[in-house]
Amino acid sequence: MEEKKLEKLLLKKGECPFCMIANKKAPAYVIKETEKSIAFLDLRQINWGHVIIIPKRHVEKLTDLTEDEIQDLFLLVKEIDQKIRKANLDDFLKKEVRTGTLILIREDNERIIKHLAIHVIPRSTFDMVFIDWRPIYESMNPLDDAVLMKIKERLSVA
Ligand SMILES: [Zn+2]
Question: How far is the centre of ligand 1, averaged over its atoms, from the C-alpha of 150 (Å)?
Answer without folding.
Answer: 37
